[in-house]
Amino acid sequence: MMKKSTKLLILASVLTLPIAFTGCSKLNKSKSSTTGWNYNDSKNGGFQKVPYKNDKIGPGLVPIEGGTFVMGSIEQDLAYENNNSERRVTVTSFYMDETEVANIDWLEYLYWLGRVYKNNPQVYQQALPDTLVWRNPLAYNEPYVDNYLRHPAFQDYPVVGVSWDQAQAYCIWRTDRANEQILISKGIMKPNTNQAGADNFTTDSYYAGQYEGLVGKGVKNLDPGAANKTRPVRMSDGIMLPGEYRLPTEAEWEYAALSLKGNVKYENIQERKIYPWNGLTQRSAHGKTQGLFLANFKRGKGDNSGVAGYLNDDADITAPVKSYLPNDFGLYNMAGNVNEWVQDVYRPLSFEDVSDLNPFRGNEFKIKAKEKNGNYVKKDSLGRIPRIPDTVKITVDGKHIVKKDDVRGQDDPMEMYGYPATSLITNKSRVYKGGSWNDRAYWLTPGSRRFLAQDSASAEIGFRCAMGRVGPPSIGKTKNKPSFKSK
Fold first, then answer.
1. What's the pLDDT band for 219 if we cut at 50, 70, 90?
2. Start and end of every Sulfatase-modifying factor enzyme-like domain (predicted)?
3. Which residue, 136, 204, 243, 266, is the most exposed by fewest CB within 10 angstroms?
4. Whole-prediction pTM
């Protein structure tokens, strides 16, 4: 039998192993390991170190843990376009809307625009969806033209008739409203319903010191030379959102739709998916839902919903945004209901050009405009700091330096030889994915892709937002996965 003193010696040795392995004895939360000066101490100059454990997830978003996957179509290429050949890529972790943006979300947006920019009605008019997308010269769809956007019966249905440009503007607005609410909820600002015109909260103007609003308690100022005991929030405080709401990239959207998370065991993908769910068909194979369609799509010519008494997908046009089962990431309607805009510019051969880490075509590099003295220029009539092209240096294959602010057509033969002047494919052609209520099952596969001009709209296209993640890629704990721990 082991002696008590021997047990204590072994226990002490085990407890000291992680410290010796990770070097954690050097870490000190209250003092710099570089200079020995105290953090968060006004007597030592007031440099702040903010404790930061996790990202702040914006309203409506769910976390998507990134990873590697095979991007591209695994179905037949019915149109013989060869625009989505398979290739392995990696997508870093991000966040995505649980559902498509609904009519009620867009009506809230319109209401805010009408209230704040009442002296500039053009802003409101430009945000109105094109309800005439429902009109068909040989069909009676006028009830949708009149009612689909505003009638409460449709408030939880996906917004349609919205162009890519309008979706981009909505993302900017949503970022500002979410950040404003964070500051209000923490008491840093007070609610101000009298904002009007340029005098409204935007994230950029707040960070630039061009918007104060109704100031609340503020953040404690540790600068010993500061006249005020409080100050506005800085990005380095980690209080506001870590990024902006935006459209997902094509790779992010496809990765999130496939949701391989449910098929992984010890880094092995057990079953390849054709759709956002397991199996080879579009129907449920389980329990009380057996035989029901798993998405809203058109089964065949003239069959949008099935027969009376047993409607196959229970939808003739769109369906509420939380219809059917979510995929393994918890996302609803990543197949069917409405197609969804993504961020990318369309090129048939993007898979040959783009990077294998966070692949994306569509970069227009821009920065917030500054004056010669280094201060940001005055905000515009919408209350935003103008953004201008940023001529940047890009390393290609470790050899070439390209100085361009707009690289949407980078390495694209169509642009090199001037084809965009006559082709339907231009730098304003944007990808949409997912299939819709009016599409056949072929388009439900995450790898399928189509395009439309960014200022155009359709009754079959909506969108959802995404946001980048900062910090480590892992989200939550993986069962039975070993990990290194530090004290």
1. confident
2. 59-357
3. 266
4. 0.89
